[in-house]
């Protein structure tokens, strides 16, 4: 339905589970929604199989909770089978209890994420890959298929914290922030000024606001993504109608 209606991308979130204590402590609205999501890579494979031109992406993959060799294989397989339509959003996450259940120390998650992304790049781009780091270590492995996109699918670094731009510049092809307010445009200017290469900007969740689209376009934002609700077709279509009405207004139609 998203492809048929002319939208160009569909991103799918990632939580392996939600610790019950977190749901209880926070009132549960956001976390309870995430309890019911499909496995991210299974859902992405289904989306790829159901479409022919739609870009499919992870918004975002919690790489601090996933083995990098397995994840590299999943990313490469989906990109290969979809004909190079995958976009790899990555993040360290915020749910500390969830991380701990995977054996991840929240205090070192940013360093862990960097090493896992760097290790996956080695796997995607080399016939015989090796990586030696503090958290990730392997020597001389073969892993195929390689991604259809060269050198690999675009890596979009998610996050809004004070050091996220450092991570974007260190190993990302783009930044995938939430829309947190007008201050995000200052940060877009900052990352572009600091970069020695083009940095793609996408918003992970964008309000239905044609005026905001104008400002995003002026700032060079590549894509504005919008959360769709889960539910029967009528509920999803209603949300798409509202989103597309704002797009038409932005386009002057």
UniProtKB/TrEMBL annotation:
Domain of life: Bacteria
A Pfam family that the UniProt record links to this protein: Bac_luciferase
Coiled coil: none
The Luciferase-like domain, residue ranges: 2-200
UniProt record, GO biological process: alkanesulfonate catabolic process
InterPro entries: Lucif-like_OxRdtase_Rv2161c, Luciferase-like_dom, Luciferase-like_sf, SsuD_RutA_monooxygenase
Swiss-Prot/TrEMBL keywords: Flavoprotein, FMN, Monooxygenase, Oxidoreductase
Single Gene Ontology MF annotation: alkanesulfonate monooxygenase activity
Descriptive protein name: F420-dependent oxidoreductase
Native species: Actinopolymorpha pittospori
């Amino acid at each position: 339905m998203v492809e048929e209606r002319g939208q160009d991308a569909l991103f799918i979130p990632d939580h392996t589970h939600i610790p019950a204590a977190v749901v209880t402590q926070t009132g549960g609205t956001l976390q309870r929604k995430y309890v019911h999501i499909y496995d991210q890579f299974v859902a992405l494979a289904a989306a790829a199989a159901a479409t022919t031109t739609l870009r499919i992406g992870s918004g975002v993959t919690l790489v601090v909770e996933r083995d990098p060799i397995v994840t590299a294989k999943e990313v490469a397989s989906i990109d290969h089978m979809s004909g190079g339509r995958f976009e790899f959003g990555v993040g360290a996450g915020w749910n500390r209890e969830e991380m701990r259940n995977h054996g991840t120390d929240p205090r070192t998650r940013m360093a862990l994420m960097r090493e896992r992304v760097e290790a996956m790049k080695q796997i995607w781009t080399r016939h015989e890959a090796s990586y030696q780091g503090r958290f990730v270590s392997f020597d001389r492995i073969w892993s195929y298929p390689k991604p259809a996109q060269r050198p690999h699918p675009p890596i979009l670094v998610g996050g809004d914290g004070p050091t996220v731009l450092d991570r974007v510049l260190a190993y990302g092809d783009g930044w995938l922030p939430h829309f947190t307010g007008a201050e995000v445009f200052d940060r877009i200017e900052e990352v572009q000024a600091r970069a020695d290469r083009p940095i793609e900007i996408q918003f992970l969740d964008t309000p239905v606001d044609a005026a905001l689209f104008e400002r995003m376009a002026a700032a060079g934002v590549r894509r504005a993504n919008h959360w769709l609700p889960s539910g029967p077709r009528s509920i999803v279509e209603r949300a798409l109608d509202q989103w597309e009405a704002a797009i038409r207004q932005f386009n002057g139609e």
